[in-house]
Amino acid sequence: MSAPKGPRRIAIAGASGFIGSALAKHLEEMGHAVIRIGRREDDRHGHIRWDPDAGTLDVSKLAGVRIVINLVGANIGQRWTPEWRKKIVDTRVRSTSLLARACAELDPHPRVLVSMSAIGYYGDRGDQELDEDSSAGTGFLADVVRAWEGAADPAREAGVRVVHPRAGLVLHPSGGLLKELLPIFRLGAGGRLGSGRQWLSWISRTDAIRALSWAALHESLGGPLLVTAPSPVRNAEFTKALAKAVHRPALAVVPAFAVRLMFGEMGEETILAGQRAIPRQLLDSGFQFEHPTIDAALASELRGS
């Protein structure tokens, strides 16, 4: 299946982040015109200022935009204090709601809103194999994702195609979990977390940005879309692969009680929990992964780091 031909005007919120910066560059290299939505306005480059907390965005400046992508959301990878839990929810729901309402107001509407989501939707499901049709799980992250995806309803109800990429762990040394783990593993102090049996659904950043652009440009895709590699691994297998990639042993074990002590509920739901996700819609649509295995992903993404 091929993507529609010709350049598009694409607006991205969160274009300065770990995923957004790479996605914006990728789309520009494909010949598309990328407009960045952020806290600062830059008329020279067509960048648009907004304030999701205040609910302010000049909708007229999105005129002619065919694709809107929202990647905004506070980092979940730290202890969830009551204040941070609120920020995790608010940054996602407010930004999505504001963009969805803007899409609904525009005439003509953008063709698609790609509103980032996460596999936290499924909760901790043990060895169960999951895909886009699997039911929601329980826990804080599952509740966050339901509210996050629901915030796009105004665009959906206006007839805009809405895609929710439920992303797994995105691997690249410049950000995310891999950035935190690399210094530890390069010292030879890495090791499995908890039992090591929990599933980890991952994707290289290269494939993640390719999947996001694929979702934006392929009109057959809509609703939830798993953005994970087709070969999830257990935590122990991931540990072994990362140690091999940096040519160090990984003999340490961080017991589950220590994870809970250090990270509280965040550790329980993200480090000790797991999802065994299979990206059926991506595969069925003809998407080809550059890095279908964990060894290939780490070898490529760590090259030169």
Question: Could you explain how this protein is built, in words?
Answer:
The protein has 305 residues and is of the alpha/beta class. The protein has a domain at 9-171 and 203-228 and 278-290: Rossmann fold. The protein is built from 11 helices and 17 strands. The protein has helices at residues 20-29, 82-105, 140-150, 153-157, 176-186, 205-217, 235-245, 256-263, 265-271, 280-284, 294-301; strands at 9-13, 33-38, 48-51, 56-57, 67-70, 112-115, 117-118, 129-130, 161-167, 169-171, 191-193, 199-200, 202-204, 223-227, 233-234, 252-254, 276-277. Strands 1, 2, 3, 4, 5, 6, 7, 9 and 14 form a 9-stranded mixed sheet that branches. Strand 1, helix 1 and strand 2 form a beta-alpha-beta unit. It is globular.
Short description:
The chain is of the alpha/beta class and 305 residues long.
Strand content: 15-25%
What's the CATH architecture of the domain at 9-171 and 203-228 and 278-290?
A: 3-Layer(aba) Sandwich
The residue ranges in which pLDDT falls below 50 over 5 or more consecutive positions are none
- So, the CATH homologous superfamily of the domain at 9-171 and 203-228 and 278-290? NAD(P)-binding Rossmann-like Domain
Q: Secondary-structure blueprint of this entry?
A:
Blueprint lengths: L8 E5 L6 H10 L3 E6 L9 E4 L4 E2 L9 E4 L11 H24 L6 E4 L1 E2 L10 E2 L9 H11 L2 H5 L3 E7 L1 E3 L4 H11 L4 E3 L5 E2 L1 E3 H13 L5 E5 L5 E2 H11 L6 E3 L1 H8 L1 H7 L4 E2 L2 H5 L9 H8 L4
Parallel strand pairs: 1-2, 1-5, 2-3, 5-6, 6-9, 7-9, 8-17, 9-14, 10-13, 11-16
Antiparallel strand pairs: 3-4, 12-15
Helix pairs in contact: 1-6, 2-3, 7-11, 8-9
